[in-house]
């Protein structure tokens, strides 16, 4: 026991070993401590708690009820100490290597890619980070084959060879520059903020290609409702979508993060939540379900998760 009554971790470890082995004599040999000294440590613990912790007999020792309670806490304390030592030791081991991250277009990726690069440079200077943007279907194949370590994409579902961890769920919104467009407000909707899908698709649309998960969700919903949409052009580029909407070529339907990205380029664009029915997509970190991540890639994945979660919390 140290000054102030603070417990000595070594005494707790010795006590746990005695209980595991069932003998003070054998524990002293394994711990390389003289038996009298080990007995004194147990006596000091018993004096601290004011209760006997071990029952001694010719066949060895067993814990008392108080001893069993202390033993359970010792196990947790020892595990925490081992974990702390491991975490601290890792801080001195500089991670080095090449890590590739791919972001699906129209996702949260463009918003957080620069922040990810900055934080990796600051905290893991030995990691060379390669960041790319590509179409969702191609990204899935790249992760499967190991061409990219991890990706932030819209979860397409039904791909057992991949592992998805959802970090954000977004509803789809109408983005339009048509100031004459007036939602009906039927069904109690607020026409200043919301629009029915049937009303939204009366506008000509510039949409992502059918390979993109956002387009697949939209097409599936339209088919179920027996609706059709006039698509005048297709692109996954935020800048091109913003230009098309600005020039009145058409409106678009996008997740909210992409919708805000367009309004940053086109401040007077209108963003209306699509309801009746509403549509959602899951943004997820995608890794191979078969190829293990390297330590540098795992560190980048954890940081990507943290950044995405912070944005969700905000």
Residue runs with pLDDT of under 50 for 5 or more positions: 1-5
Q: Sheet bearing the most strands, described?
A: 8 strands, mixed
Broad CATH class of the largest domain: Alpha Beta
Number of helices: 11
Integer tally of domains: 2
Q: Could you tell me the number of beta strands?
A: 12
Account of the 3D structure:
It is a single chain. The chain is of the alpha/beta class. The protein has two domains: 3-91, Winged helix-like DNA-binding domain superfamily/Winged helix DNA-binding domain (Arc Repressor Mutant, subunit A, Orthogonal Bundle); 95-314, D-Maltodextrin-Binding Protein, domain 2. The chain has eleven helices and twelve strands. It has helices at 9-21, 24-31, 35-49, 65-91, 109-123, 136-145, 197-200, 213-225, 238-246, 256-265, 295-313; strands at residues 54-57, 60-63, 97-103, 127-133, 150-154, 162-176, 194-196, 205-207, 231-234, 252-255, 270-275, 280-288. Strands 3, 4, 5, 6, 7, 10, 11 and 12 form an eight-stranded mixed β-sheet that branches. Helix 1 (9-21) crosses helix 2, helix 5 (109-123) crosses helix 11 (295-313) and helix 9 (238-246) crosses helix 10 (256-265). Residues 1-5 have low confidence and may be disordered. One of its GO terms (molecular function) is DNA binding. Belongs to the LysR transcriptional regulatory family. InterPro entries: LysR_HTH_N, LysR_subst-bd, WH-like_DNA-bd_sf, WH_DNA-bd_sf. It holds the Pfam family LysR_substrate.
Keywords:
D-Maltodextrin-Binding Protein, domain 2, 23% strand, Arc Repressor Mutant, subunit A, alpha/beta, 314 residues, 12 strands, elongated
């Amino acid at each position: 026991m140290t000054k102030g009554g603070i417990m000595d971790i070594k005494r707790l470890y010795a006590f746990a070993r005695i209980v595991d082995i069932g003998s003070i004599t054998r524990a002293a040999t394994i711990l390389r401590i003289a038996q009298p000294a080990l007995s004194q440590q147990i006596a000091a613990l018993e004096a601290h708690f004011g209760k006997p912790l071990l029952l001694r007999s010719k066949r060895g020792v067993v814990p008392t009820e108080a001893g069993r309670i202390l033993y359970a806490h010792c196990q947790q304390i020892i595990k925490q100490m081992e974990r702390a030592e491991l975490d601290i030791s890792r801080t001195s081991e500089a991670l080095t290597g090449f890590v590739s991250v791919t972001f699906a277009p129209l996702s949260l990726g463009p918003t957080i890619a620069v922040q990810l690069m900055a934080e990796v440079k600051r905290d893991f200077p030995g990691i060379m980070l390669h960041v790319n943007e590509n179409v969702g279907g191609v990204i899935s194949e790249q992760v499967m084959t190991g061409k990219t370590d991890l990706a932030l994409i819209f979860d397409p579902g039904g791909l057992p060879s991949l592992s998805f961890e959802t970090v954000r769920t977004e509803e789809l919104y109408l983005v339009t520059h048509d100031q004459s467009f007036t939602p009906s407000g039927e069904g109690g909707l607020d026409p200043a903020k919301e629009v029915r899908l049937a009303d939204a698709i009366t506008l000509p649309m510039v949409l992502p290609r059918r390979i993109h998960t956002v387009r697949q969700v939209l097409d599936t919903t339209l088919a179920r409702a027996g609706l059709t949409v006039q698509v005048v052009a297709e692109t996954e580029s935020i800048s091109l979508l913003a230009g098309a909407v600005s020039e009145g070529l058409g409106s678009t339907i996008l997740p909210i993060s992409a919708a805000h990205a367009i309004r940053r380029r086109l401040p007077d664009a209108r963003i209306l939540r699509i309801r009746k029915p509403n549509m959602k997509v899951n943004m997820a970190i995608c890794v191979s379900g078969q190829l293990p991540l390297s330590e540098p890639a795992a560190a980048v994945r954890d940081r990507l998760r943290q950044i995405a979660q912070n944005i969700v919390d905000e």
